[in-house]
Write a structure and sequence with these properties.
- By secondary structure, this protein is an alpha/beta fold.
- The protein is 39% helix and 21% strand.
- The protein has five helices and five strands, in the order βαβαβαβαβα.
- The protein has helices at residues 14-27, 38-45, 64-73, 91-95, 114-125, and strands spanning 6-10, 31-35, 52-56, 82-86, 101-106.
- It has a five-stranded parallel β-sheet, sandwiched between helices.
- Helix 1 links the parallel strand 1 (6-10) and strand 2 (31-35).
- Helix 2 (38-45) runs parallel beside helix 3.
- The longest helix is centred in the N-terminal third of the chain and has 14 residues, at 14-27.
Length: 126
């Protein structure tokens, strides 16, 4: 049996964090760590646990692009794939501007297919 996917979700919206965690763990069989801010996400990423980061673009204090830049500078996280979470209508274009971004998931997303979308992006990136 393959190892469960380890996902670090960085989003300031408690509802998004809750729905995503439930979907990713219960439907997708993933392991999830949650961060409510870019700064907290960087703390959690520093130990190298995550296989992929789901990153909200619009957060107070440290937004998604700034978080992604700092993430790339963390030892062991230089190549950590990032999937952008955004309500922006041009999500893929936005993702192309983010360091290490391999794709974008537009909000609102379907919780039942969220893990499949992540796996699809990871497969395409490898």
């Amino acid at each position: 049996m393959p190892e469960p996917l380890k996902i670090l979700l960085i989003d300031d919206d408690v509802a998004i964090r809750t729905i995503s965690m439930l979907a990713l763990e219960r439907v997708g069989g993933a392991q999830v760590r949650l961060a409510e801010s870019g700064a907290r996400g960087l703390e959690l990423a520093a130990d190298g646990w995550a296989d992929v980061v789901l990153l909200d673009m619009n957060m107070p204090c440290m937004d998604g692009p700034e978080t992604a830049r700092h993430l790339r500078d963390l030892p062991g996280c230089e190549d950590l794939p990032v999937i952008v979470l955004t309500a922006h209508p041009n999500a893929e274009t936005l993702a192309s501007l983010i360091p290490n971004a391999i794709g974008a998931i537009q909000k609102p997303f379907d919780p039942m297919t969220l893990t499949d979308e992540i796996h699809r992006y990871l497969s395409a990136a490898n």
